[in-house]
Design brief:
Blueprint lengths: L10 E3 L10 H6 L2 E5 L2 E7 L5 E6 L2 H33 L6
Length: 97
Amino acid sequence: MNEHFSTNEPIRVQVNYEDHLLPESVKEFKPVVFQEGKAFRCLSDVDDEEIVTGSGETTEMAIADWDQHLRESLTRELVEYMKLVWRFRIKKPRMSM
C-alpha cells in the first residue's frame, strides 16, 4: 500500500457557488465541502466564535444540512439579541414630552 495515499484522508469537493439551485446562504458564506469515505461534510466559520457544520450522504445533502444548522444558529443569535434589546427597552427611562 502506498504510504502517501490514505482513503481516510478528507478530500475537498469543488462547489460551484454560482449554481442557481444553491441556497443564498451558501453563495454568501461559501462553506467548504469534504468527502470522508462515503460521507460528505460541509463547514464554515460564519463568525469568530462559531463553526457551522453539516453532513450527508451526498454533497447536496451535506450542504442542505449545513444550511439548516446555519438557520438554527442565526435564529438562536437573533433570539438572544432580541432578549437584550427587550431588557434595554424595559430598563430605559421613558422621556415625557
